[in-house]
Amino acid sequence: MSEGVRAEVQRSDWDQWWRTAVIYQVYPRSFSDSNNDGLGDVKGIIKRLDYLKKLGVEAIWMSPHYPSPQADAGYDVADYFNVNPEYGTLEEFDELIAEAHARGIKLIIDVVPNHSSDQMDLFQEALAAGPNSPERDMYMFRYSENGTPNNWGSMFGGPAWSEVEPLTGKEEDRGWWYLHLFAPEQPDFNWENPAVHEFFKSYFRFWLDRGIDGFRVDVAHGLVKAEGLPDDDIGPDRWAGGQQADQVESPFWDQPGVHEIYREWRKVLDEYGRDRMLVAEAWLTPEREARYVREDEMSQLFNFTYLKANWNADRVRDAINLPIEANGVVGAPVTWVMSNHDVVRATTRYGYEPEVATDRGIGFDDPQPDRELGLRRAKAMAVFTAGLPGSMYVWQGEELGLPEVTDLPDESRQDPTWLRTGNKIRGRDGCRVPIPWEAKAPNFGFGTGAPWLPQPEYWAEFAADVQEDDPSSTLNLYRKLLNTRAELGTASGSVEWLDAGDERVLLIKNGDVRLVLNMSNKPVEIAEVSEVVVSSCALEVQGGSVEVPANCGAWLK
Predict the structure, then answer these.
(1) What are the beta bridge partners of residue 61?
(2) Nearest CA among 343, 295, 304, 299 for reference residue 323
(3) pLDDT tens, 81-104?
(4) Catalytic pick from 41, 218, 232, 415?
(5) Has 8 been annotated as catalytic?
């Protein structure tokens, strides 16, 4: 089977829920704290399910919920078959699945297959077993007398290799190293070992048996490394220029062997039905990403081209056209993503000029965004995005218009990137601050215990209860938007570009609706309008036309 994108195919799963669903990302640690220990938990999610149902979401994607030392906020998994005791119990997780399903909400969980925690029993057994043992073969151990086995750098800063001998204290381990593309506490699995394949098959069946509807695949393009582990072109410091090096051509990204793994997984999921889905986190080009959503592999992948386009009309246009074209070849849907737990919140990114890079995170001493402009643009982009055909992801708090916490105290930061770069790269904590539910409650209703990341005082103005009865709030805009999206079926439609007379104004016909996003700095008049279906700003039909202000998005009929 060719690794290139295949010719036109007919998918057998055109009616599957994930093709058009609105999927809401829950970051358990920061969502809702039911036992007042400062950490969100499973019971807290259950408590907010009616809120999510009213919002109009059809599925929840839940970031890692497993036991973990939290070296990387749960992406260092110590036990793939249980629930972090800080978040609850397996029985409470079963209750979450049942309560979500009772409301017609699917549940997707994170699978972290590239690496585990160094505290996982498999890695501890590997350390104890010694060089060249079957236990060591579960991970990427290599021998090198003269420094690291190659020049690879960690995504979090510093080298991607750590010495074994300091961990074991054994002379036999001198010269041995283990690979970690992320933190040293996250050793990479060896996917050349069939035992690793069998381990993850058992993982999938365990959670599928409990009723899980799908899996978000962390670092989906990183599992397989090039034969011989050759040096790359970047070297051991991937943050040398102040921004993380972006390299698609890499000996540890997007190797052909990853696709055989996903075909294997697809067969396991198919034992439970084609409605069980996989969504890939793979930061590649649209053409290469499309290989991950061939019919016998995954269901979806995140359209990060759209996320990275920011407030730039040409880039947004390409981020729509290129994935639709590439995915169309294999009959796969496109997803629309504005934010997630790894990037600066959209509301803040749009408050900068589009060429401003925010990959390193934002601190109190960095140039600050225009918060008002950022919120206006984020609402406009949300309106436009929700009208596109395919599946839409909403990052928790996005529906509240939450900005990045750019004034988070440095002493509160916990992101391993901040720690491993010598406090130079602030990282992702600013988008992960616990969200506000009640303006006047302790910790804004998150819970009465001090939150694991401090909330700013201005969180009160974004609290859900403040927005509840305000018809002009971001929350009520999202509710109207997502429910109208379901009523009109725009997610099952198509994209036909129309000319708005200005390249900075995006105008799309999708069924009976015209989607407009004015990314220019002046109003644009749209003719032949009888109705404003939904908009991010106040619009009025006058004489059969509508004047759409700058930084506004709308659906028109």
Answers:
(1) 25, 108
(2) 304
(3) 999 999 999 999 999 999 999 999
(4) 218
(5) no
Residues whose CB is less than 8 angstroms from the CB of residue 360 and which lie 6 or more positions away in sequence, other chains included: 239, 242, 243, 244, 425, 426, 427
Phi and psi based region of residue 388 (left: phi greater than 0; alpha: psi -120 to 50; beta: remaining): beta
Strands 505-510 and 513-518: antiparallel
Strands 391-395 and 22-26: parallel
What would the pLDDT profile of 276-334 be if each residue is shown by its tens digit? 999 999 989 999 999 999 999 999 999 999 999 999 999 999 999 999 999 999 999 99
Q: Where are the beta strands (DSSP E) in 196-264?
A: 214-217
Q: From 348, 356, 354, 396, select the one nearest 375 (Cα to Cα).
A: 348
218 is catalytic: yes
Do the strands 176-179 and 141-143 form a parallel or antiparallel pair, or are they unpaired? Answer: antiparallel
Is the backbone of residue 117 left (phi > 0), alpha (psi -120 to 50) or beta? beta
The answer to whether the CB of 80 falls within 8 A of the CB of 110 is no
User: Could you tell me which of 452, 443, 403, 369 has the C-alpha nearest to residue 70?
Assistant: 452
Whether this model's pTM surpasses 0.85: yes
Which entry of 185, 281, 399, 429 is annotated as an active-site residue?
281
The whole-angstrom separation of Cα 225 and Cα 254 is: 8
To 5 degrees, how large is the angle CA 547–CA 550–CA 554?
A: 60
- State the distance between the two ends of the chain, measured CA to CA, in whole angstroms: 45
Three-class DSSP category at 78: coil
CB 391 within 8 A of CB 491: yes
